[in-house]
Structure prediction request, 174 residues.
Amino acid sequence: MLQVPTLETPRLTLRGYQLSDFDASCAMWNDPQVIKHIRDKPFTSEESWARIFRHAGQWALFGFGEWALIEKETGEYAGEIGFMDLHRDLHPPAQLAPEIGWILCSRVHGKGYATEAVQAALAWFDKQHGSKRTACIIDPPNTASINVAKKCGYRQEQQVTYHDKPLLLFAREP
Prediction:
């Protein structure tokens, strides 16, 4: 069985995905408010299912991956955060991996969970993998995620294009 570390913050538990997270994850990836800065159409059930297995594969191959975010107060699924190496075809080519990403259920937007979770994930990453450059890509109108990135030490490096969509590449240097 793959062992994914569990992280605790004051309000969240970051833990490995469980198959029981599927319905909540699928609902999140079908919420227009959640995906509006990611893609034009919701993820299908099949795509959402495959994401959970991709998370497990990242942990197995790289020693990092994505966590499910669980609210401590309610015990409910609140989103996901983590590191990945997706070999994205960015133009112009840019070093993205390890890439950090976060996405939260719309019901918890505006609570500061993203910043809390990103800070915990970065502290874990630095301890486990040494201080290395990490990066993220963000849709320019997504000011909430840009603010999270900046609060967590990321600085805008350049504009890139991914799947014909212009994005901002942010990096955090050791």
